[in-house]
Each structure stands twice: as C-alpha cells, then as structure tokens.
Design brief:
This protein is an all-beta fold and 693 residues long. It has no helices and 57 strands.
Length: 693
C-alpha cells in the first residue's frame, strides 16, 4: 500500500526567490509541459523534503499540476499533486523514508504529463532538527505538530507522522540524550514519547489523566522526564515521572522550566526571585543553591560537555558556567526568542526566533571556548503565518551508558557510537587532559579519590560531531552501616525484625547488605557465625527465634563500587526458655492457660519452696512471671549464694512480665535458684531468659 502523502505549501522566504510565472487563463497548450527545474531532494530522519521551480514556459504550456514519481525496486508509484503558486517555487513532502527510493517531478497540463526530471536518490540522513511547529488553519485556529527540518537544505517542516498523537501537541519537544527520541505533551494532560530517528514509530503514552503539563526535559540517563505543571492558582510546580510511565513525584512548587544537570540534580527557575537554582531531583527536593546574575533568565539548557548553561536573558541568548560566574550575553533580538538548545557537540546554540512581521526563524550561534557567542546564522524560516515554539537537534550521537556514579581507581568507561555514519573517529579527555584518540571502553588506572570529568567526542563520516560527558566519582571508602532495631534485651515473640541503614560518602544509595547471626543456648556458648542473607537490598531481615536461645545479628554494607564495610557490633536478643525447663520443688504445680508464656506456668502460694535452673551461662538474667497485687517476692541465689530479692507485687495484673534479676558480679556459670518468701502470696513463673551479652 502506498504511504499517505502530505501535500503542503510551506515555503521559506529566507531562501532566494526564483521568478515563477503565475498561471493565467490562456488557450489550451498544444504540447506537453517542459520538465520542472532546480529539483532539490533532502531528507529528514523520518521523511522526504522535495522542492522545484517551474519551467520558464510553464505559462505557455498551461501547467495545471505536477506529479511525483517515486521508484522503488523498479516499481514507479505516481503521486499526483496540484500545488498553489508560491514565489519561491513548489514543495512536496511525505512522512516516509524508503531505502533506495528515487524521486522525480513532472508537470501536467490538459495534454497530459510532460517529461519527468532526472530521478534523484534520497541521500542518507543522520541528523535533523525536530520542532514543535504551529500552523494557522483555514478556520483561523492553530494547530501544533511535531515535525522535522532537513539539515542542511531543508525548506519545509516535514511531519513526523501523517496522523496520530504527534499531529496535535504542545509547543515544547524534549530530546533524549542519545538523540533518538522526543517527548511531548498533548493537550497539557498527557505525556508521550516516540522515536524520532525512524519513520512509522509508534508513540507511547507515559502519563495520562493529568493537567497543566507544559515544558519538559529528559534526564541524562533517559530514565526520567521532568516537567512543569501549571497550578490552578497560576503558579507552577516541577514534577518527575519515569520515562516508562508511573506516578509522578513532585520536586517542588514555585519552580519553572526544568532542565537536568545530572541524573540526581535539576536546574529550575525560581518563580519568586527569577534566579536559576540547583535542586535535588527527588520528591520534595532540596534547593542546593542559586546562580547569581540570572534573574531575567528563561528556558535554561545545559551543554553536552557540562561546561555551560545556555538561557535567554530578555531578548538575548546568554551563557553562564555550570558552577556559576559572569554571564556571557549575546546580541539581543527585536523579539524575545521562544527557546534555546544545544547542538550535539556543544559548539553552537540553536535559537527559535520569532519574526516581527510573522513567522519564526531558526538561528545558530557559535560558542567560543570562553563562552562568548558568535554572530547568528539563520538556517530556516517558516511561512509568515507559522511559528516554531521549540527546536532540538535529532539523530544518533555518542553516548555513555548509565554508570553507578562511583568507581574504583582503575577506571573503565564504555561509550557507544551506534547509528553514526562510519567510519567514526573518537577522542577522549579525562580531567581536562588534551583530547587523544580512544576506543571504548576508555581505561585509566590510579585515579585519585574524588570527582573526575570524562568527555568523549565522536565525529562521523559526514563530519557531524557529538560529545558525551560523565562525572565519575572514584571511591575507596566503605559505607557506614548501623543496626537500628531491635532494642530489646528479651522478646517473647517467635520472630524478630532486625533493621539497619547505611550511608555512603558517594551520596549514592548503598548497593547491598550482608547479614549474619550467631546463636547461644541458655546453658552453652555461642556457635560460629552463619549467614542469614547475603547481597540483599532490603534494609531489614526477619529471623525466627526458638525458646531458650540468644540470637546476635551483625550487618555489613557494600557500595556501588564494591567497597565493603566491616561487620557491625552484634545486636542481640534473647527468647526465654519455658518454665518446664526449670526444676520445681514439691509444692509447685504445673499449670496451663492461654495467658501464660507458651501456655504453661509453674505456680504456688506456699512459702520457702524453690524453682531452679542449672548449667546457666549468663551476664544478665530475666524472669518471666505474673505480676499482681497479691503476688509475692522471691529470694534469688546464684550458685547457692544469695544475691538479692525480686518483687512480683504490682498494682495491676500483668501476665508474662519480663522481670530483671540481679546482675551477677561476674559472668555466671552455674545455677539459678528462686525461693518464695511469703505464704499465701501468688507465684506464677513462666520462664527464664539469659543473656550472655
């Protein structure tokens, strides 16, 4: 099936005008029309831009239309077109690219079709400019669509697709760092992404059912989109959503025009002060600082090499170092520009410039090593009734895959040049060293601890250059880890949750944790450490507890580089043994009830009788017993020696109370004896817990 053809008369008055005879009502021609002249064929990444001028005798030949011959594998598809007259010539486009296709143009009149022009093969295309292009409709309304301009030589905006979501969008488009995709808002209530380097790509909806979405920016790692959302009170908030979709998080309000400095940090415009500021790229992100001298700034954009922030200062383009400093202002234009973005190599800025008497121009300005802007060069101009709201360079470029953010001193940094016209030459710079030829991965050893800057530049066979930047943190310091719970000496529960946390000097999340434990019975030593969980990202672990044992857990943490901390000090908890593990003299009774620990207790109301536990090893001991208003007290003996009294009397009744026993003067190895002191008092003994720690 032949692709849908979009006919348009979208001419650029910036190009030299060619005198074209205006068709008039004349007698029928006696011959076929002559071949059209000045055939120009260029391509965007997703379509075709074809233009021509009429033959000098077009009026005499009574030309009434043109046909385009598209030949693929010997099959000629004839695409008729009846253009309106324009002072610069005629233009035709389609949102289609067919490998090996040739195009020719022929004029038609009442006699038929004249000879076609020499077929031209569509040249390979590796770069274009994607725009949010607003056109005026016949009914007076406007519509903005996503289109592309061929570079160089483009004469019209070729829609990314003949139909679908890209046909009605907001004015701002955002390009992914690899140059292959754009993101756009549709009706301010949904976010979309689509490949813009191939035809027929299917747009993917990221966010729907929202409102007020306007300006947006794609994160350096391609994982997130930041966008500005208009609020009912007239203010704006900045939010972030995963590029694959999900629930947005709100960074903050009274913020405008987000752009990314790194995957962890945004640059936004503060609504109150007008200044650009650095803010954490997370929910309720903290403002990390402001950039002096930017009170009049709009539409900030970070250069590919991360040296400069480009922005609009009133009617003038401006640059300022990423870390702040003196702004470098370019020449102000008559009207305030609509946007400013960077070329893939950071050597130029691209300005979308409205024109006073109608239309928009795309203007490039070179960027010197000192940050000063060169004179502007107009590379495209729309029809007077049209407007470009934003423009971004599109096409494959050198990319550095997402890294952990921290590495060891022996570095290996991969980069990719997939899609660039071969052969590709690459040069690398590390910490400002002279650029030198390199291949992927870039490797160096012995880097000092701290933050380094890596830059790779690729130049393809067409001479197109692109650069990619990566901040690299060399880290040899292990995380700092601590256990936060439990804080109990004794628990009657059959499980315990051990929680822990860690921080790393890199500022990045800890990569994983290892947990281990050692266990001791009431009458024995600790066994060897055994792993509980290894390599887990969880910050807690649930352990099962058997009655009559003490459990000690320790944790260590591992950062993204692989630096491993030492083990924490043990965090220990003991679960009591049951009363049935204790010896009981005559006069004690073994009782059962759901209110007792493990359902049993040893009870009496008699005086001078004992319960005991032999072969105890402990630094501390705890009795599990009922406390009540009629409960009595017990004499406590360690290895037959009196060490004190424990009182079970309490104004309220408490079952399974944990009652500390006197602390032994030294580590206890031996027996524990508890003797009742008062006849008629209630004694309900549930169990005994010991702690070796």
């Amino acid at each position: 099936m032949a692709p849908i053809v979009l006919a348009a008369v979208c001419l650029t008055s910036a190009l030299p005008a060619t005198a074209v005879p205006v068709p008039r009502g004349i007698a029928r021609a006696a011959k076929l029309p002559s071949t059209p002249l000045d055939i120009k064929l260029t391509g965007t990444l997703t379509g075709v831009d074809l233009s021509w001028t009429a033959a000098p005798d077009a009026n005499d030949d009574a030309v009434n239309g043109y046909v385009i011959h598209r030949v693929v594998d010997g099959v000629d598809t004839v695409l008729p077109w009846e253009p309106a007259w324009n002072s610069s010539g005629y233009e035709w486009h389609e949102s289609e690219r067919i490998p090996g296709a040739t195009y020719a143009v022929a004029a038609t009149n009442a006699e038929g079709e004249g000879p076609a022009s020499t077929p031209i093969m569509l040249p390979p295309t590796h770069r274009a400019i994607t725009v949010g292009h607003t056109i005026r409709l016949e009914n007076g309304n406007t519509r903005t669509f996503a289109g592309q301009i061929a570079v160089p030589g483009g004469k019209q905006v070729v829609p990314l697709a003949p139909d679908g979501p890209t046909q009605v969008i907001g004015e701002v488009v955002a390009a992914s760092l690899d140059g292959r995709e754009i993101a756009f808002a549709k009706g301010q209530n949904s976010l979309w992404r689509v490949r813009a380097d191939i035809p027929h790509a299917t747009p993917v909806q990221i966010l729907d059912g929202s409102s007020g979405i306007i300006r947006l920016a794609w994160s350096p790692d391609g994982a997130q989109l930041a966008f500005e959302r208009l609020q009912p009170d007239g203010g704006s908030c900045v939010e972030i959503v995963a590029a694959t979709g999900g629930t947005p998080i709100r960074v903050g309000c009274n913020m405008l025009m987000p752009t990314w400095l790194s995957r962890a940090q945004l640059i936004v415009k503060d609504r109150n002060s007008g200044l650009l500021e650095y803010v954490e790229a997370k929910a309720n992100g903290v403002v990390l600082g402001t950039i002096a001298g930017t009170a009049q700034s709009t539409m900030p954009s970070v250069s590919p090499d991360h040296r400069w922030i480009a922005y609009l200062d009133g009617n003038a383009p401006a640059l300022i170092p990423v870390s702040g400093g003196a702004p470098k202002l370019g020449t102000a234009s008559e009207l305030r520009p609509d946007g400013i973005t960077w070329s893939p190599d950071g050597a130029e800025v691209l300005v979308a410039q409205p024109i006073r008497f109608g239309g928009s121009a795309l203007v490039t300005q070179s960027v010197g090593a000192d940050g000063f802007l060169g004179a502007g060069e107009t590379i495209f101009r729309t029809q007077p009734s049209d407007r470009i709201g934003s423009a971004v360079w599109q096409g494959p470029r050198v990319v550095i895959p997402p890294m952990s953010g921290a590495v060891r001193p022996d570095l290996s940094i991969p980069f990719g040049t997939t899609g660039l016209a071969t052969p590709v030459t690459t040069t690398c710079q590390f910490d400002g060293s002279p650029a030198a030829p390199c291949s992927s991965p870039y490797q160096t050893s012995g880097a000092w601890v701290g933050v380094h800057q890596f830059l790779v530049k690729a130049v393809d066979a067409d001479g197109h250059a692109s650069v990619a930047h990566q901040s690299v943190l060399v880290d040899v310091t292990a995380p700092n880890v601590r256990i936060t719970s439990p804080v109990l000496d004794v628990t009657k529960a059959a499980t315990a949750t051990v929680t822990y946390t860690a921080t790393d000097n890199s500022g990045l999340p800890v990569a994983s944790y290892d947990t281990r434990w050692r266990i001791a019975p009431t009458a024995g030593n600790f066994g060897a450490y055994a792993p509980v969980k290894s390599g887990t990202t969880a910050t807690s672990v649930l352990i099962g507890l058997a009655a009559g044992y003490e459990y000690c857990v320790s944790v260590r943490a591992r950062d993204a580089v692989g630096n491993v901390s030492g083990w924490t000090a043990d965090r220990c908890v003991s679960r009591p043994s049951d009363d049935r593990a204790m010896g009981a003299a005559t006069g004690w009774t073994r009782a059962s009830h759901q209110l007792y620990y493990l359902g049993t207790a040893t009870v009496t109301t008699r005086n001078g009788i004992s319960v005991s536990r032999s072969s105890v090893q402990a630094k501390r001991l705890f009795l599990i017993a009922t406390k009540c208003g009629t409960c009595g007290s017990l004499n406590v003996y360690y290895n037959g020696k009196s060490v004190g009294i424990v009182n079970l009397s309490y104004e309220a009744t408490v079952y399974q109370a944990i009652v500390p026993l006197p602390v032994p003067a030294s580590f206890l190895t031996g027996s524990v004896l508890l003797t009742t002191r008062t006849a008629g008092k209630v004694y309900q003994i549930d169990g005994l817990a010991v702690r070796r720690t």
